[in-house]
Design goal:
Blueprint lengths: L8 E8 L6 H6 L13 H4 L1 E8 L4 E6 L8 H9 L3 E4 L2 H11 L8 E2 H8 L19 H9 L10 H6 L3 H19 L3 E3 L6 E3 L16
Parallel strand pairs: 1-4, 4-5
Antiparallel strand pairs: 1-2, 2-3, 6-7
């Protein structure tokens, strides 16, 4: 699947249902029994909610399986089927794989992180040992510098909020991430938070899917 200019475009983001295991967090939250082993354990992460924005209808959506007031993931699959272009922030390396592990078929055609890295002359992903000290293209940094405001909370905290019943907060957080991604995607150029350079984003982002999870 490749990006098609002018075709119906959907921006989306997922939130994990179960947190990534961390000794400190596990001690602080002993009631939480189910954890994902690491950032590649998609089968055990689960999905709490999926948020999306359709350029075609100029509308935001929120989907969930544990809330009778929300449309389920089967309806999200229908929405995906009505859009040829799928935009996400690290979607090709995280959200797509999380969806796949939960029976949802989706393939990001324009990964904003990949576009940003390529505009900066960098590889699509890098190992921790290759990453320049202090560098990051996380959504928080990109949004705060280029939009003037950032994320509502950390993605690591969303599963914990979900466990304790703060589901409205998680829904709002996920929708906000989609809004940030949409607004960054709409900009023809962005400021690099690491160098201060102007990045002119490519119109197309053709890439091979590599199953590498990222915290970007």
């Amino acid at each position: 699947m490749s990006f098609s200019p002018g075709a119906p475009t959907l921006v989306y983001d997922c939130e994990m249902k179960n947190p990534i295991h961390d000794e400190y967090l596990a001690k602080r939250h002993p009631k939480i029994q189910k954890w994902a082993r690491d950032w590649r354990d998609f089968e055990n992460m689960g999905i709490s909610v999926i948020a999306a924005y359709s350029f075609q209808s100029d509308r935001y959506f929120i989907f969930g399986e544990d809330d009778p007031h929300l449309p389920g993931f089967d309806l999200f699959q229908e929405v995906v089927g009505n859009h040829e272009n799928i935009v996400a922030f690290s979607g090709a390396y995280f959200d797509d794989l999380l969806c796949e592990a939960n029976g949802i078929k989706i393939k990001t055609t324009y990964d904003l992180v990949v576009a940003i890295r390529r505009a900066a002359g960098l590889p699509d992903t890098w190992a921790a040992s290759e990453k320049p000290r202090g560098w990051s293209y996380k959504l928080e940094y990109m949004a705060r510098l280029n939009l003037g405001y950032g994320k509502m909370a950390s993605g690591k905290d969303a599963p914990i909020d979900w466990f304790y019943g703060r589901k409205a907060m998680v829904r709002a957080y996920c929708l906000h991430d989609v809004k940030l991604t949409k607004e960054l995607y709409q900009k023809p150029s962005l400021i690099d938070p690491n160098t201060g350079d102007v990045l002119y984003l490519p119109t197309f982002v053709e890439f091979a899917k590599i199953p590498i999870a990222t915290e970007e």
